[in-house]
């Protein structure tokens, strides 16, 4: 597999025949629009649609519509389209797609990657696209060879005719003259006939990443490229009052010192020159309300709101008072989850080049259409003259859905008389000046009767909302011509709605949906101190599962029922969740943990997939050690089982980082932590053995990038309780003496 950044001169500018190839232009979304497809013009090539191109050398190129950030999307989607096209996925030439409406994510309605939506959204459309092209090749071969189509077959990009193997490329000249079959009626393979889907195979990007030849945004190096570093306020939203550049402007390599919307940018010939100069700048910032806030105040404000304020309600069912009256026991507990940073391996970065009224931008983002919009808004250059080159992403987790770095680099290039510029955020920039998983205080009050049935479930969450900040981030990018006053009004209206009348579902998702309870209510109180918030892997589920699954264990103990059986009897109406819990229970019965080791389990449904986690834990000298995690996942049909396993393993490691270490603290309005010495990531010596069990399923594929993480924290917490008798309700988990 290779990734190609197509130069502008090779940008396909025609929607008819180009160099012997045909752009048929049918769209996965049905709204291809008039914008030309950003695919490469190759003499004699056949560009069958926005996703498949066959060259005269019989190379099959797949333009991948989603961004690869380690989640295996190129492998999953490549395998999907290759199955019906009858091409070995390992031989595909995979290119990251440019910006075009054909590359919209059907789950979002815009071009973007996230929410574990890629496979579910594209499984059938890409299969249809592949099957349609294979059908056209067979039609063309039938016509060229004078053989009935029914007498022909295909195998790994070859047509089989009378025992001969003839490359697809032999028939592309005729294929381009034919009419594509209707995507909705094209015949797809039966599962029994799959050659690649559901089979174990290496990742398509594995060799590139193992050999260091994969190109990430931070690897991009262009001729005459300058380097930029930005000094930003340590307190979010503080305004720049002044800066003194006298001690900096004569430093080696420094060419520009600029005020931009996010702070002060220093441009130099080398990155280290820019970084050293930026650190020496004397900068003054304004005081804002957040400047007087620290972590203790945030927690106190959350607690006061929990005790004294009522908020909008959702998920109401039955009669809550009657449910509590019928309970023989009532349990009420509060759970805390702190702010978290994404801590992606590759910090934010981008390269921009402005020449002759045209812009090229290289970056790994989760929203290339948004990047294009921000560049257009910042530079005043029309979107038709902006080319976004998507690279590999060195981790996303939601962080690369925010595009501050794109706006910054566009401003810098625009203000430096169009220098070619690379902007790189340091690790300290990324942790102290980024966007964060919201902190959350949750309370669950639940009743259980003598039969071990939950009679009432009342959940409440206090914290900030993601949706209003998301609007503030994406509106300038998605609607470049929208005046800032209207953006402010839309964000203000969103805040008003979620503060007073409605619940932002991303704030409470997962608190109540998994188990059947006849009487329930969920409420939300918004408390937002101004710490920048955004999505983090598994979004609201990243903290709600901790509260919900810890409470399920507390209730099971109160009812005197085995925690697995307790979950099973309440998940009867959620068959996929019930299924993974059942398998977890069977595995627990077979496990023989070592002396001093204890088991805990949790299960959760998110992103249309169900996952159960079993944690094997020991506690010695107040230190929690996780020895093994056993994961059971039902994600529908596992298109690429190895990728599914890798994502469950990744979720476990990411989740254990949050369980054992993850915590950001606010001090004087600023994030106190700065790098991995005080915001540690799980280390190799802490990593447990991991076993992943994939449920065999005929259902359509669902998400795997995020659903493995939510049950990790409660599984470990429940195991710690079994080991010590201490019920830990705050993350990260810390034992009391």
If you had to describe this structure to a student in words, what would you say it looks like?
- By secondary structure, this protein is an alpha+beta fold.
- The protein contains 18 helices and 29 strands.
- The strands form eight sheets. It has a seven-stranded mixed β-sheet, sandwiched between helices. Strands 15-23-22-21-16 form a five-stranded mixed β-sheet. It has a four-stranded mixed β-sheet with strand order 3-4-5-6.
- Strand 18, helix 8 (368-379) and strand 19 form a beta-alpha-beta unit.
- 52% of the residues are buried.
- Mean pLDDT is 94; it is low at 1-32.
Which oligomeric state applies?
A: single chain
Q: Which CATH class of the largest domain applies here?
A: Alpha Beta
Q: State the separation between the terminal residues, measured CA to CA.
A: 54 Å
CATH topology of the largest domain: Aldehyde Oxidoreductase, domain 4
SS-based structural class?
A: alpha+beta
Radius of gyration, in angstroms, nearest whole number: 27 Å
Named at the architecture level, the CATH assignment of the largest domain is: 2-Layer Sandwich
Please tell me what the overall shape is. Answer: globular
Overall number of strands: 29
Average predicted confidence as pLDDT: 94
Helix proportion of residues, in percent?
Answer: 25-40%
Any idea how many domains?
3
The CATH homologous superfamily of the largest domain corresponds to Aldehyde oxidase/xanthine dehydrogenase, molybdopterin binding domain
Main features:
737 residues, alpha+beta, Aldehyde Oxidoreductase, domain 4, 7-stranded mixed beta sheet, 5-stranded mixed beta sheet, disordered N terminus
